[in-house]
Structures are given as structure tokens and as C-alpha cells.
């Protein structure tokens, strides 16, 4: 905790001294800037005709930062020699491995308050190099996308920027994960663009990760009451929605909302067990429908999509329980 306190104090000083010199298209870990702004910048450039992206992936960035080069660059706007000496001690501090301390020859500590600020100092040189070359981009920490007008231009930029990164910054571009491609084939900070409308869309990987989380929280073997499950889901969904709520392509989110409600109907049907017929009747399902469903040989997942369960537990039922919707309702 003491280390983190000291790092936070240093980060505040370094940020104050460096902030006026950072490039305006750097959005990571800076005052009054956010990942949403970086994503919007990328979208604006695509809509302006920069329909190809040079997607740079820096391999093990924090582990490969050249320490001497970092301290030398810091000194440009940090005049305090004692502070620079302290920062050098922090970045060169050893790593505890198998009961002993191993010297750190390169890289900076990860996870501390100071690391993001140091990353911006290192990569600020890349930002201004791109500016001098007339390139338009958006960068958030070590996640950078350069927007260009054609595939040929993109390949030229990829080659030249890779040389700069590896020869001047002494970092490594991961060729396997980097690419020149259409923006809708790449993801940036969890988002991508819709090919037709250029609207912001949640990337498939982010959707899959959320779905795995929801699947875990709503698994039928947990044995909790439905309202308890909804409470846990609510916490995860509201946090997710706070970040991804700027998405403009809503159809995948509506499908996920439907899938989750079906999961919860399945969960509740399993809890009802032999009382399923009686519970359906209490909720307005006809005798015939309730009987057919309760005597069905199908499993709970198949039953969860029947009209009887949709009638017994409509979307408004889950709204009353406090389950958030990822996509707003269509206007009536």
C-alpha cells in the first residue's frame, strides 16, 4: 500500500508536468479523456473516408520498455533530479520469483498507478511521429489504430511504423496480431463498426465474454431464488452497460436480452419442479397450455421458449424484478 501511495503521488506530478505536451489523439489515462472518446475518434475518421485501419499490437509492451530511454524522455519535462532518481529506482526494482529477487533489466512494473503515465510518456514519441507524417489515429495506452484511405497506404504505414517502433522505441510489434484491414473486421477497446452504417457495435469477443459471465450466474444448479440471481445479474449488467452503452447497433444486444430472459425462465421452471402446472395457472396460462407444458417430455431449456412460459414470465416481469435491458425498447 505504501508503494502504491508513493506511485500515485509521483503519477500526479508527472501527469501535471507532461499533460500540456501530450498529443490530443492520445486518450488513455489522461484527465478529462476516456476510451469512449478514442472510439468516437476512430469512428469519425472512418466516416470521413479513412476506410482502412492499421491495427498495431505491441507485444508485451510493459515488459519491453527500455528503461534508460524512458528516464531520458521523462527528463525533458520533469526537471527534478531527485524525482527522476526515485522513478528509476521504481522501474528497476527487482521481481520476486521463487523466493528470490531477480533484477529487472527492461520494462516497467504493471498494475501500479504510475505505469499508465509512463506508458504515455514512452508512446508520446510515436504520437508526434505519426503527426509529422500526416497520419490520423486514435491511441489508448498501448492500443493504437491508424486510419488510412487505402490498403496500399495501410501497408506502407504498417511497414514504416513497425520500423520506427522497433528501431527507435526499441519495442516489438506483434506481427501475428497486427493487421491492415477494414475497421469492421477489427476491434478497438471492445468495439467495432457496422459495415453498412459505420455505427458503433460491441465486438463479438466482448459479447461472448459477457454471455459466458451471464451463463455462469444463471446456471440451473445454483439453487438460489430467482430474485437473488437477478440481483447478481443486475450488478454485472449495469457495469457492462455503463461502458458499452454507447453502442449504436442494437440488434445483437436485443438478442442477448431475449437469450437471458429465456435462461431465467429455464431457471425458474427448474425451481418450480412438480409445482410447475400450478404456478403457470396462477400466472394466467390456460389449463390446456399449462397441462401440456407440465407433462412435456422435453427438458427445461426447450420448455423455456414455449408461449406458456413467455406468458407467465413476460419481459415486464423481469423489468419489475430489476433486470436491466442492454438495448432500449423500440419506440412505439
* Tally of DSSP helical segments: 15
The ordered string of helix (H) and strand (E) elements is HHEHHHEEHEEHEEEHHHHHHHH
- Strand tally is 8
Overall pLDDT: 93
User: What is the percentage of strand-forming residues?
Assistant: 5-15%
Structural class: alpha+beta
* Low-pLDDT regions: none
- How far apart the termini lie comes to 53 Å
Give an overview of the whole structure.
By secondary structure, the chain is an alpha+beta fold. The chain has 15 helices and 8 strands. The chain has helices at residues 2-18, 35-47, 61-64, 67-74, 81-92, 115-132, 151-167, 204-217, 226-244, 251-272, 276-282, 287-294, 300-303, 307-312, 315-321, and strands spanning 52-57, 95-97, 100-102, 136-140, 143-148, 179-181, 191-193, 200-202. The strands form 3 sheets. Strands 4-5-1-6 form a 4-stranded antiparallel beta sheet, sandwiched between helices. It has a two-stranded antiparallel ribbon with strand order 2-3. A two-stranded antiparallel sheet has the order 7-8. Strand 2 (95-97) and strand 3 form a beta hairpin. The N and C termini lie far apart (53 Å). The mean pLDDT is 93.
Amino acid at each position: 500500500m505504501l508503494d502504491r501511495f508513493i506511485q500515485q503521488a509521483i503519477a500526479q506530478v508527472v501527469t501535471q508536468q507532461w499533460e500540456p505536451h501530450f498529443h490530443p489523439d492520445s486518450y488513455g489515462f489522461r484527465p478529462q479523456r476516456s476510451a469512449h472518446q478514442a472510439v468516437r475518434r476512430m469512428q469519425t475518421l472512418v466516416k470521413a473516408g479513412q476506410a482502412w485501419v492499421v491495427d498495431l499490437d505491441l507485444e508485451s509492451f510493459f515488459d519491453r520498455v527500455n528503461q534508460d530511454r524512458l528516464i531520458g524522455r521523462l527528463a525533458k519535462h520533469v526537471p527534478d533530479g531527485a524525482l527522476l532518481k526515485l522513478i528509476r529506482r521504481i522501474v528497476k526494482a527487482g521481481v520476486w520469483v521463487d523466493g528470490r529477487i531477480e533484477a529487472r533489466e527492461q520494462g516497467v512494473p504493471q498494475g501500479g498507478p504510475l505505469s499508465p503515465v509512463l506508458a504515455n510518456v514512452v508512446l508520446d514519441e510515436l504520437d508526434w511521429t505519426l503527426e509529422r507524417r500526416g497520419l490520423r489515429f486514435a491511441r489508448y495506452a498501448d492500443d493504437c489504430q491508424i486510419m488510412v484511405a487505402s490498403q496500399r497506404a495501410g501497408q506502407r504505414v504498417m511497414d514504416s511504423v513497425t520500423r520506427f517502433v522497433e528501431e527507435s522505441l526499441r519495442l516489438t510489434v506483434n506481427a501475428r496480431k497486427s493487421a491492415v484491414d477494414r475497421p469492421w473486421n477489427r476491434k478497438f477497446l471492445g468495439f467495432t463498426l457496422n459495415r453498412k452504417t459505420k455505427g458503433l457495435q460491441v465486438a463479438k469477443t466482448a459479447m461472448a465474454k459477457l454471455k459466458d459471465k451471464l451463463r455462469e450466474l444463471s446456471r440451473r444448479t445454483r439453487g438460489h431464488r430467482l430474485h437473488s440471481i437477478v440481483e447478481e445479474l443486475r450488478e454485472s449488467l449495469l457495469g457492462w452497460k455503463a461502458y458499452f452503452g454507447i453502442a449504436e447497433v442494437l440488434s445483437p444486444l436485443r438478442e442477448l436480452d431475449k437469450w437471458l430472459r429465456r435462461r431465467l425462465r429455464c431457471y425458474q421452471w427448474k425451481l418450480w419442479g412438480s409445482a410447475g402446472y400450478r404456478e403457470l395457472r396462477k400466472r394466467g396460462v390456460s389449463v390446456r397450455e399449462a397441462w401440456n407444458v407440465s407433462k412435456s417430455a422435453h427438458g427445461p431449456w426447450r420448455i423455456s421458449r414455449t408461449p406458456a412460459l413467455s406468458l407467465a414470465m413476460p419481459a415486464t416481469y423481469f423489468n419489475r424484478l430489476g433486470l436491466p435491458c442492454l438495448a432500449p425498447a423500440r419506440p412505439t
